[in-house]
Amino acid sequence: MAEQLTPLADDRALLGRTSTAERVSDILRSRIAEGYFPPGTRLSEDSIGGALGVSRNTLREAFRLLTHERLLVHELNRGVFVRVLAVEDVEDIYRTRRLVECAVVRGLGEPPYALDGLAEAVAEGRRAAREGDWKGLGTANIHFHRELVALAGSERTDELMRGVFAELRLAFHVVDDPRRLHEPYLDRNEQLLRALSAGQRREAEHLLAGYLDDSLERVVEVYRRRVGEEA
C-alpha cells in the first residue's frame, strides 16, 4: 500500500482549496484505471485520506460514488475494496465498448478528424513496448480508446466511458501475460489511426469491431482460466 500511496500523495495538489468528493473520486478512478490499486485491494481510509489531505467524510463520499460506478465494493465489518470482476462483468464491459466506440466512429462526419490524441497514444504505446513495459502498454491502449471516444465531443460519453475503462483495467489485472494480451493491439491501433487519417470511416469501424471482438475473446479466455484456478 505504501508504494501505491506515494504517487497518490502527488495528486493532492490537484484538489486545491475547494476539495470535493467528486474530485477525490476522479483521482481514485484514474489511479484504478492506471493500475495502482489492483482488484481485491483494501483501501485504507486513514492512509488515503492522509495522502490526499481530505477528511474522512469526504473520502467516504468518494468511496460511495465509486461503489455506485462498480469500481469498489463495501464489505460489512471489513472495509472498502477494489472490485473483483466476474466473467459476466467483462462481457458486459465489451458490449458497452462495442456499442459506444463503434457508434462514435460511425458518427464522425466528414474528415479531417482531430487525431493528435490518438497519435500520441500510439507513440506512448510504442515507447512502452520498446521498454518492455507491458502494463504501460495496456495503459496506452486504454488511452487510445479514451481518445477515440473523445472524438465524439460529448462530455456525457466521456464520463460514461471513464468508468467503463476503469473497470476494464480491473479485468486486465487478472491476465497473467500482459505482453501477449496488449502487444498485438498496438499495430491494430496504428491501423485504426491510418484509416481515420485517410477519412475511411467505414473501414475504421470495421477494424474496430473486429478488434473489440478479438480482445473480448482473449480476455474472457484468460479470465475464465484464472478465476477457475483461484476458485
Question: What's the structural blueprint in terms of helices and strands?
Answer:
Blueprint: H1 2-10, H2 21-33, E1 42-43, H3 45-52, H4 56-68, E2 72-75, E3 79-82, H5 87-106, H6 116-130, H7 134-150, H8 155-172, H9 178-197, H10 201-230
Antiparallel strand pairs: 1-3, 2-3
Q: Could you explain how this protein is built, in words?
A:
This protein is mainly alpha-helical. The protein has ten helices and three strands, in the order H-H-E-H-H-E-E-H-H-H-H-H-H. The chain has a three-stranded antiparallel sheet. The longest helix is centred in the C-terminal third of the chain and has 30 residues, at 201-230. The mean pLDDT is 89.
In short:
The chain is mostly helical and 231 residues long. The chain contains ten helices and three strands, in the order ααβααββαααααα. The protein starts with a helix and ends with a helix.
Question: What are the main properties of this structure?
Answer:
71% helix, 231 residues, single chain, 10 helices, 3 strands, mainly alpha
N/C terminus separation: 25 Å
Biggest sheet layout: 3 strands, antiparallel
Q: Largest sheet, order of strands side by side?
A: 1-3-2
Indicate the percent of residues in helices. over 70%
Number of H- or I-type helical stretches: 10
Structural class designation = mainly alpha
β-strand amount:
under 5%
Oligomeric category: single chain
The helix-strand sequence is HHEHHEEHHHHHH
